[in-house]
Specification:
Elements (H helix, E strand, L loop, with lengths): L1 E4 L7 H12 L4 E4 L4 E6 L3 H11 L8 E3 L3 H4 L7 H10 L4 E6 L14 E5 L4 H10 L3 E5 L11 H8 L5 E4 L10 E6 L2 E6 L11
Helix pairs in contact: 1-5
Length: about 200
């Protein structure tokens, strides 16, 4: 695995470019977000998605999220009602994963029987620059393997994934590393799936 140092607030475009090239080549990358380190691949690389499922030990019935750079981009991949749009505006960019009804743009490989997709728009210059340079969303999962685990030291992450992931953007240990808050919005009903880093008070502003 190739490791490139990256600054959380002012990421060097050259380092981001190395990760983008890996995505374009159907490879897996590890990157910092506003919650924890993520592991991901291109939304349009089936073999890479299959590798990601295998590495994370997930079944095809366990959904993953996608990282977008804007609500506008997300609206291509998820059905966003007026009520859902208002909630997304309050939460994004930020440490939330919001599950919505998927559009036909989402590959069938990523869809559960409920045809839903998790949307992430992290408050992270690294993620923003990554998607801006790459273009399509990145299929995303955290580097953690269990709900009670928190991998935050880059050396520990590299030790686990070094032989199966191609590129890592190393920003050092992330400040206040916690998993995202997960919400589901179906038929304009909001369900709290997991309380994490995202403040639930933002739902009621």
């Amino acid at each position: 695995m190739l490791r490139f140092k990256v600054h959380l607030e002012t990421p060097h475009k050259r380092s981001i470019r190395k990760a983008v090239e890996a995505l374009q080549n159907g490879q897996l990358i590890i990157y910092p977000t506003d919650t924890v380190y993520g592991i991901g691949c291109s939304l349009y690389e089936k073999k890479a998605i299959e590798r990601l499922y295998q590495i994370k030990g997930k079944s095809k019935h366990e959904p993953m999220s996608i990282i977008c750079n804007s609500i506008r981009q997300a609206s291509r991949y998820a059905r966003i009602s007026t009520a859902a749009f208002r909630l997304l505006k309050r939460c994004f960019p930020g440490p939330y994963t919001i599950i919505l009804e998927a559009s036909q743009e989402i590959p069938r490989l990523l869809l559960t029987s409920r045809k839903e997709v998790g949307i992430r728009i992290p408050d992270s210059p690294v993620c923003q620059e990554l998607i801006d340079q790459f273009g399509p969303p990145v299929v995303n999962s955290s580097v953690n393997q269990r709900p009670d685990e928190l991998l935050n030291e880059p050396d520990d992450i590299a030790a686990r994934y070094g032989k199966v992931v191609d590129v890592m953007l190393d920003a050092g240990p992330l400040p206040d590393a916690r998993e995202s808050t997960v919400l589901k919005i179906i038929d304009d009903e909001v369900e709290i799936i997991r309380e994490g880093k995202g403040d639930l008070q933002r739902l009621y502003l």
